[in-house]
């Protein structure tokens, strides 16, 4: 996986949420959580797996919605942040955080009602292998996102410390076909780059987000969007 050593560093885990999802980054956090809940909710009583759960942003959210969820990640430092977060909001009895490899998930076939992975496939060096594993352990639903070729992310992609794989629509369609998954629904967002939001105070980022949302609803919105959310099923 790209940037594996960087991702597992203690200091990266400790600063991860603050650097990316505070101030203007809160609009990114909100939209990503809406995308997950819109696709997979309601989740009360559902058994769910999050692959590459990081600091547990989505894992904890799903537990708060009543899911019994496992968050799997390769980074002990990230998992530690997730456990602390779950304990602070009182859902640690609904969450289990595990260290593991997304290419060899330690679960039997059809074990979960749904499986999802956010902010993962841009780092995946073997995306088909990973997606097949997500499909294998899910009874039906698989949800994931991609960063898109031809979007504003191309402008600064080379600056990122861990690199980033960008996908065309044809790439995603090929990935789904090779993984034997059917596309159930899709949505696309963020014409303006993530990096811009993270550098701005919330009140400055707010009108930009309104502008971005408006552009996204135009005829070129889907084509220029930097992020796509894919809701698939077996």
Describe this structure in words.
The chain is of the alpha/beta class. The protein has one domain (4-146, 162-188): Rossmann fold, CATH 3.40.50. 44% of the residues lie in helices and 20% in strands. It has a seven-stranded mixed beta sheet with strand order 3-2-1-4-5-7-6, with helices on both faces. α4 links the parallel β1 and β2. α6 (127-137) crosses α8 (169-179). The model has no long low-confidence stretch (mean pLDDT 90).
Proportion of beta-strand residues: 15-25%
Number of helices: 11
Number of strands: 7
As for the number of domains, it is 1
CATH superfamily: Vaccinia Virus protein VP39
- List unreliable stretches of 5+ residues: none
Shape: globular
**Strand-and-helix sequence, N→C?**
HHHEHEHEEHEHHEHHHE
Q: Give the C-alpha Rg.
A: 17 Å
Which CATH-level-2 architecture?
3-Layer(aba) Sandwich
GO molecular function: methyltransferase activity
EC number: 2.1.1.-
Organism: Halohasta litorea
Enzyme class: transferase
């Amino acid at each position: 996986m790209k940037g594996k050593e960087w991702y597992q560093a203690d200091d990266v885990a400790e600063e991860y949420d603050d650097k990316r999802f505070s101030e203007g980054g809160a609009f990114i956090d909100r939209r990503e959580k809406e995308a997950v809940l819109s696709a997979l909710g309601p989740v009360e009583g559902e058994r769910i797996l999050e692959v590459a759960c990081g600091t547990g942003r989505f894992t904890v959210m799903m537990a708060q919605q009543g899911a019994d969820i496992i968050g799997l990640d390769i980074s002990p430092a990230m998992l530690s942040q997730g456990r602390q977060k779950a304990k602070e909001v009182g859902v640690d009895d609904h969450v289990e955080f595990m260290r593991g490899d997304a290419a060899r998930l330690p679960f039997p076939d059809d074990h979960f009602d749904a499986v999802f992975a956010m902010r993962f496939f841009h780092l995946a060096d073997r995306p088909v292998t990973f997606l097949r594993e997500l499909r294998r352990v899910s009874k039906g639903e698989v949800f994931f996102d991609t960063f898109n070729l031809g979007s504003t992310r191309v402008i600064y992609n080379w600056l990122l410390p861990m690199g980033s794989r960008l996908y065309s629509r044809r790439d995603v369609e090929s990935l789904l076909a090779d993984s034997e998954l059917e596309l159930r629904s899709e949505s696309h967002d963020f014409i303006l780059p993530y990096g811009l939001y993270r550098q701005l105070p919330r009140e400055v980022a707010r009108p930009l987000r309104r502008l971005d949302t408006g552009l996204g609803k135009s005829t070129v919105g889907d084509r220029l969007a930097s992020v796509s959310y894919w809701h698939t099923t077996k």
